[in-house]
Design goal:
CATH class of the largest domain: Alpha Beta
CATH superfamily of the largest domain: Histidine kinase-like ATPase, C-terminal domain
Number of domains: 2
Order of helices and strands: HHHHEHEEHEEHEE
Strand order of the largest sheet: 2-4-5-7-6
Helix content: 40-55%
Low-confidence stretches: none
Largest sheet: 5 strands, mixed
Mean pLDDT: 81
CATH topology of the largest domain: Heat Shock Protein 90
Number of strands: 7
Radius of gyration: 34 Å
Distance between the termini: 89 Å
CATH architecture of the largest domain: 2-Layer Sandwich
Structural class: alpha+beta
Number of helices: 7
Length: 329
């Protein structure tokens, strides 16, 4: 038979209780320290990011910077970078919309002013010849307004359309062949369009994108080149497969592009067509072309083709050249 004194049992229970209290205090201290660390490293930055996003929502017309935590190599840094990029894209889009709206208002005001002046002057015309000229002005301005509104509508819905549609595989061998065939069949001038492939088999000329919009790019460049080419000229389209890109080159036999216009040719509503009457072109075709190409992750540039000059002579401009590069599959 074993026996234990009651006092010994009380001492052991007391010791266990004291140990439990010590463990609880240590755990509580650790929890407090961890809570402070989490609050300082996670909760605080997340709260600052949320406050920044809320300021962006409320002050959309004044630029607000999201706190920068991109130096951190964790999820907070990734979140900060994503929010900053999203905010910059949002402000860029807002600025583009405001600029586009201002340009549209300016371009529409000109034909409307001319149209109003002609309409107000028409009842005062005393001869049939004067009325005929005023009616021609009115018809010209109405056609110009219709052309502007159509091109503006196409440009305004372009971004939304490209964002909604899923990119698919585009076969440039088939696309270019169909566009060139159609251009030669329905042409209204004496300008021929040719097509050549370099640097790979037809199966190599494939890229991700939207075939209808990429077809619009090539069609715009063909129409632009033909409008500047003289009767009997040729528009030459060359498609090359580079390492990771597809290059499409469109050459014409026109007068080329003035040096001061090379940097402006892709601007909205800019047009430089001395051989055409005023108001015959909206100036949005090449701007839309650049917008589509850049939306596909590509680039477009323009240059003049020059002849090889002899010693002491200036090179002669042979025509314009547009070069489009798109990422290949």
């Amino acid at each position: 038979m074993l026996s234990t004194q009651g006092a010994d049992i009380d001492d052991m229970v007391e010791a266990e209780r004291l140990a439990i209290v010590k463990v609880f205090l240590v755990a509580a201290a650790v929890m407090v320290v961890l809570s402070m660390l989490l609050a300082g490293t996670i909760a605080g930055p997340v709260r600052r990011l949320a406050d920044g996003a809320e300021r962006v929502r409320r002050r959309i017309r004044s630029r607000v910077e999201i706190p920068d935590f991109t130096r951190r190599r964790d999820e907070i840094g990734d979140l900060s970078g994503a929010l900053r990029e999203m905010t910059n894209a949002l402000y860029t889009r807002i600025e583009a919309i405001e600029s586009f709206a201002a340009d549209v208002a300016h371009e529409l005001r000109n034909p409307l002013t001319s149209l109003r002046s002609a309409v107000e002057t028409l009842p005062l015309a005393k001869t049939d010849e004067s009325r005929r000229r005023l009616l021609e002005v009115i018809e010209h301005d109405v056609k110009r307004l219709d052309r502007l509104i159509s091109d503006i509508s196409d440009a305004s819905r372009l971004d939304a359309e490209l964002q909604r549609q899923e990119a698919a595989q585009v076969d440039f061998a088939k696309l270019l062949d169909a566009l060139v065939t159609a251009a030669n069949e329905i042409r209204t001038d004496d300008v021929n369009v040719t097509l050549a492939f370099e640097g790979g088999s037809p199966a190599a000329f494939k890229a991700p994108g939207h075939d209808s919009r990429l077809g619009q790019v090539v069609s715009n460049l063909i129409d632009n080149a033909r409008s500047f080419s003289p009767p009997g000229g040729t528009v030459r389209i060359t498609c090359r497969r580079l390492k990771n890109e597809i290059e499409i080159v469109v050459d014409d036999d026109g007068p080329g592009i003035r040096p001061e216009a090379l940097d402006k040719i892709f601007e909205r509503f800019y047009t430089d067509r001395p051989h055409q009457g005023f108001g015959q072109n909206s100036g949005l075709g090449l701007s839309i072309t650049k917008q589509i190409v850049e939306a596909h992750g590509g680039s477009i540039r323009v240059e003049n083709r020059n002849s090889v000059a002899a010693a002491g002579q200036e090179p002669r401009v042979l025509g314009a050249r547009f070069v489009v590069r798109l990422p290949a599959m």
